[in-house]
Amino acid sequence: MRKLYFLVLFLSSILSIHHLVDASLHVKYLPGFDGPLPFQLETGYVSVGESEDVELFYYFVKSERNPKTDPLMIWLTGGPGCSSICGFLFANGPLVFKGDEYNGTVPPLELASFSWTKVANILYLESPAGSGYSFARNLRASESSDTKQTHQIDQFLRSWFVDHPEFTSNPVYVGGDSYSGIIVPGLAQQISFGNEKGLTPLINIQGYVLGNPVTYPSIESYHQVSFAHRMGLISDELFESLVRNCGGKVFDVDPSNAKCSDDLQSYGQCISKIYVAQILLPNCKVDHVFQSKIPTLPNIINGRRRELKEFSGNEYSSSLPPPSCFTYKYFLSGFWANDENVRRALGVKKEFGKWSRCNTENIPYTYDIHNAIPYHVNNSLKGFRSLLYSGDHDMVIPFSSTEAWIRTLNYSIVDDWRPWMMSTNQVAGYTRTYANKMTFATIKGGGHSAEYNPEQSSLLFKRWIDGEPL
């Protein structure tokens, strides 16, 4: 009987070890990067959902400063449906593509100069199922929504902390950009509610960080038009006519309104050659194209699929733009992420299919958060810190739209509009801080995500996360 007991105990230990190895992998080398990685990288899957039939993939990079005490931030990429490679290799992670002309081999990587992981532990999550290497085991599990994401990511985090108890005392922040502006405030609230209900392990949530965030689409459409006017992309007369005939909007307008339709056609002609994610950049071939000539936000109000389509980046090299294009790296990511050696190094499960940078058209998704402002209000009442930053040359989610909804909160200003500096004589952008611990900042010359100005973005993040004035 005693021998049988020890045999059962031994087999249980083996099964537990197997589960941990299957769930996470410590990555020492990555195809495309020469030599061992000079930072600590872990990848893995965590099962979530009612029947644990959703497999969410993550990259975890330990802080290069002091991982035991530095904040831990979970980073979500927008879409919904875009891979966290957008954060890990483009926006704020420790590696970037070299940008060499593609030659049929694994695209080469190099260290990023301005990684946010120099001062924080970052957990890059692929959510919802269908994003990046994450997947669902059946059709029902593949269905997602804004609110379902907040519940599943909260479930993911608590499961992840069970396997990583050494980080439970670290300050925790939620971060993301673009469409994550809808998810992140709701997730912060969900984590807080879970803590109050006694869910374990408790998550030491302190606040959140958002870049060019979708927040309230019904006003953001108007600010796309006003931004185009302020930047000299459309005339005074056309702007005034758009306001008069279309209410200043580019979607949710009456299709029978002939005057508005004419104005929208003129508007489309004016901006059709503009790279709307950063209007100063050349209009190279991009991996996101619009069904119409008019860039729009998700048409959440009517529940229709978003008009913004995403290109996977997996096409043949003959379709690549020149390496000098800012968008070239997006195409390289398709070749890198679908390479079998890369997938093996990252521990991607064999049942996973083809990777795409943004899988926005193939995820059954319900847009059920139409306005994220109430979540910001609730989070402010709980005392959470928040940083909202905007590249001031992004036309997708203009900085003016973020300014506008922040003003509706009517919080007192504790540090009024002023430049924040890279050095004593170099303006990096402008900032304002409110009494609810909310800081708004622009990035001068910035685009739709942190990757357009990594030096300014990383300095902004470091100062804010360390509690220093910008």
From TrEMBL:
Keyword entries, A-Z: Disulfide bond, Glycoprotein, Signal
Pfam families: Peptidase_S10 (PF00450)
SUPFAM superfamilies cross-referenced by the UniProt entry: alpha/beta-Hydrolases
GO MF term list: serine-type carboxypeptidase activity; sinapoyltransferase activity
Example GO biological process: proteolysis
Keyword Transcription regulation appears in the UniProt entry: no
Signal peptide bounds: 1-23
Top-rank lineage group of the source organism: Eukaryota
The UniProt record lists the keyword Glycoprotein: yes
Family: Belongs to the peptidase S10 family.
Protein name per the record: Uncharacterized protein
Originating organism: Eutrema salsugineum (Saltwater cress)
